Amino acid sequence: MTAPTPRGGAAVGRLSDLDPVEAGAVMYLRLWGAGSGGQADAASDFEIALGLDRGRAAMLTLDRLCSLCAHHGRRPLMRHGLGCACLGADENCFAQMVAAASEGAREDAMMMASLIVRPDFAPALASLSEELGLALRQMTRSVPIPTTGHRASSAVLH
């Protein structure tokens, strides 16, 4: 009998299902969680894409955001490995929070933040999510999103 998947770690999709900002949020969450080597890689990415000052600011935001989740989370935030193509439930919530905040959907970001951290820390988490999301949005602005040319109806999920 296999052990149950820890709460929040269950695969709910694939990274390829996410838009660039959402996928970036998950990738940088995973890099931050991988320790000093992963954090150095994230810092390098930010500096290359955003320049030295804005890159350092983005890395500081990522560090504050992830530290807040780690120290004031309702429970440990589950992450999949760096090379894993799966998307975990906690990672998806994190990605959706960052994306919503970067789009100005503050109430949605606050709702998702309250699922990750204690309610008294949710406003800070949502604010940091907006900062990170805007940096990721700037980084991915020039990255073309592959398309088949077909647009699915917004009312059809599968």
Counted up, domains total: 1
Strand order of the largest sheet: 1-2
Output the number of helix runs: 6
- Report helical residue fraction: 55-70%
What does this structure look like?
By secondary structure, the chain is mainly alpha-helical. The protein has one domain (12-140). Helix content is 59%, strand content 4%. It has six helices and two strands; from the N terminus they run E-H-H-H-E-H-H-H. Helix 1 (20-33) runs antiparallel to helix 2 (36-50) and helix 3 packs antiparallel against helix 6. The radius of gyration is 16 Å and the shape is globular. The N and C termini lie far apart (32 Å).
Main traits of this protein?
158 residues, mainly alpha, two-stranded antiparallel sheet, 6 helices
Task: List the topology elements.
Elements: E1 11-14, H1 20-33, H2 36-50, H3 52-72, E2 86-88, H4 89-102, H5 106-116, H6 122-140
Antiparallel strand pairs: 1-2
Helix pairs in contact: 1-2, 1-4, 1-6, 2-3, 3-6, 4-5, 4-6, 5-6
Task: Summarize it.
This protein has 158 residues and is mainly α. The protein has helices spanning 20-33, 36-50, 52-72, 89-102, 106-116, 122-140; strands at residues 11-14, 86-88.
